[in-house]
Design a protein that fits this description.
Elements: H1 2-14, H2 16-42, H3 46-51, H4 59-82, H5 88-91, H6 93-113, H7 120-152, H8 158-186, H9 191-200, H10 202-212, H11 219-224, H12 228-239, H13 246-258, H14 267-273, H15 278-295, H16 299-312, H17 318-342, H18 344-373, H19 381-399, H20 404-412, H21 418-446, H22 450-469, H23 489-496, H24 501-504, H25 512-521, H26 528-541, H27 548-557
Helix pairs in contact: 2-7, 2-8, 2-10, 2-16, 4-7, 4-21, 6-7, 6-9, 6-10, 7-8, 7-20, 7-21, 8-9, 8-17, 8-20, 12-13, 15-20, 15-21, 16-17, 16-21, 17-19, 18-19, 18-20, 18-22, 22-23
């Protein structure tokens, strides 16, 4: 234990620049977490409903307007992820991240100043627009930050750095939940009661902009643009080594080789190249599938409608439902921190997704079963068990499906298509977050306990998908992950799965080292132009085919 802690401390010291880079970039996800945690509590405040004329509406109309207020953010997020973030391939990750931060701040400022000197009808339209605008900024950040962090982080801590995204989301959730609770009990009803939580969300946006000003551009984007000296400088900064250090030189060589024939691809070309082979297509689809499954876990149904869910279990007052929601935010945040510190690199991506999916599915089935067997009983002892189950759902979601899909997706995506692939995956996230935000109130009203059963069954399906079809990516350099999908994908996935060898017996997949040795001996590019370019690259880099022993020694150095 002492040895492990000492090693972790040494890693933090060695990679402190990389950790600060990840901290700076993932501050943008505090904005994301704050937005999705904020609105569910704000719209339950009578002061908010009075400012926007919702008190005079019928219950069904009020529910519809609330769903629209919640989901318009997702509409903006979808467009931000799909369109604005694509510009990162041309202009760089950092400039588009800064622009995204500015857009988010503008949306937040307009939200905070809405309904001043306007009628409720006009104020509601302005509020819709401001949430859409803020969503565009958050959507772009949510698409680019995983790409940026995974391209910058050393492989030894890549999972931890990329996984810190969910810590930031959890922190934003938790802060928003407790700010909502605080204003509900400490401030008299009035416009400042609902404005203050929105004003507070400007703070993480401003911090994101400030911190990102001091961070470098992605070294892999610099290589793609042919700016090799700048890429070497960034790699040296991230790892705190000299530019002539073997680790920096070898990593730069691997990145350059991976981009041979793939420099400066236009947007339409990136889409076309997603289907250039079955393997590339599979690697491009996996991130979107992972984020699709993530949304059907039910997490955003809880995030957005936690007050209503707790009210459905028997809590009646606004303050008690907001308090229960705040505790849920704390539970998710703490568990995510623990998982990030001790689990993601030791368990790997695959086990966290399998165990987390199965456990969160069980919790949803329990909640659905209890709600179906004991409707409208008020607060009874069994109610507290169901509330604990909701908190445990947050625990198990944080263990696996909270942030691992982002880590896995950013690792699996092909390097020359990563920005486009992750933008598409994030657009899928926003699209189905919008869908969940729209249908959850309807599901809770019409099929009641069946809502939780749907999410529970979906969790089991996603765990099975990972078990049989996703190989373990932990510990591999980004440029080597392509070999995991070259052959024997299901066999390799079962080999990496807990208990998977029961299904495969003595069969084993071809090792990555063997595949790399074969690739060194015979370049896989069929294009004569690309083959010649690879030869020229090898000549420039002084690289020649190596034997497996020297390859293993070099692999150990690659960042």
């Amino acid at each position: 234990m002492v040895t492990t802690l000492k090693k972790e401390l040494l890693d933090i010291i060695q990679y402190r620049n990389a950790y600060f880079l990840a901290f700076s970039a993932t501050t943008g996800f505090v904005c994301f977490g704050w937005e999705i945690g904020l609105i569910g509590g704000v719209i339950t405040l009578p002061s908010f409903q009075e400012s926007f004329g919702l008190l005079s509406e019928s219950a069904s109309a009020r529910a519809s307007l609330s769903a629209n207020i919640v989901s318009v953010l997702q509409a903006g997020g979808f467009f931000g992820a799909l369109f604005l973030s694509f510009s990162a391939s041309r202009f760089g990750r950092k400039p588009i991240l800064l622009i995204s931060g500015v857009i988010y701040l503008l949306g937040s400022i307009i939200q905070a100043t809405t309904a001043i000197g306007t009628s409720p009808a006009v104020a509601l339209k302005i509020f819709y627009f401001s949430r859409f605008l803020g969503g565009v900024g958050i959507g772009s950040m949510s698409a680019l930050v995983p790409t940026y962090v995974s391209e910058c982080a050393p492989r030894a801590i890549r999972g931890r750095c990329t996984g810190s995204i969910e810590v930031s989301v959890g922190l934003g959730n938790m802060l928003a939940f407790w700010v909502n609770y605080s204003v509900s009990i400490n401030m008299s009803p009035g416009q400042m009661q609902w404005r203050l939580p929105i004003i507070a969300q400007i703070i993480p946006g401003a911090l994101f902009l400030f911190f990102m000003l001091f961070q470098p551009e992605s070294p892999r984007w610099l290589v793609e643009r042919g700016r090799y000296d700048e890429a070497a400088t960034v790699l040296a900064y991230i790892t705190r080594k000299g530019q002539d250090d073997d680790a920096v030189v070898l990593t730069l060589r691997e990145i350059r080789a991976d981009f041979v024939g793939k420099h400066r691809l236009p947007l339409l070309t990136q889409f076309r190249k997603m289907g250039e082979s079955k393997i590339i297509l599979l690697r491009c689809i996996i991130p979107s599938l992972a984020t699709f499954f993530q949304q059907w876990s039910g997490t955003n149904a809880v995030n957005y409608y936690a007050p209503e869910i707790f009210a459905g279990l028997g809590f009646s007052s606004v303050s008690s439902t907001l308090f229960a929601t705040g505790v849920y935010g704390v539970v998710k945040f703490v568990v995510t921190c623990i998982t990030l510190a001790f689990v993601i690199e030791s368990w790997g991506r695959k086990r966290t997704l399998i165990y987390g999916g199965l456990a969160q599915g069980l919790m949803m089935l329990w909640i659905g079963g209890w709600a179906g067997a004991h409707p409208n009983e008020g607060v009874v002892p069994g109610t507290y068990v169901s509330i604990v189950a909701i908190y445990l759902f947050g625990v198990f979601f944080g263990l696996g499906w909270g942030f691992t899909p982002l880590v896995l997706g950013s690792e699996v995506a092909p390097g020359h298509l990563r920005a486009a692939v992750m933008s598409l995956a994030t657009a899928v996230t926003w699209l189905f977050t919008y869908v969940i935000a729209q249908i959850t109130p309807i599901m809770l009203d019409r099929i009641t306990y069946g809502t939780y059963l749907v999410f529970g069954v979906a969790s089991f399906i996603m765990a099975a998908w990972v078990y049989f079809f996703i190989p373990e990516t932990t510990g591999y350099p980004l440029e080597d992950i392509k070999y995991l999908f070259e052959s024997d994908i299901i066999l390799r996935s079962l080999e990496d799965a807990p208990g998977g060898r029961i299904f495969i017996g003595k069969r084993r997949a071809v090792s990555v080292e063997e595949l790399k040795a074969a690739a060194d001996a015979l370049p896989m590019n069929s294009s004569k132009e690309n083959l010649q370019e690879m030869k020229e690259e090898a000549s420039v880099q002084g690289h020649s085919p190596t034997n497996s022993n020297s390859r293993v020694r070099e692999d150990a150095l690659i960042i």
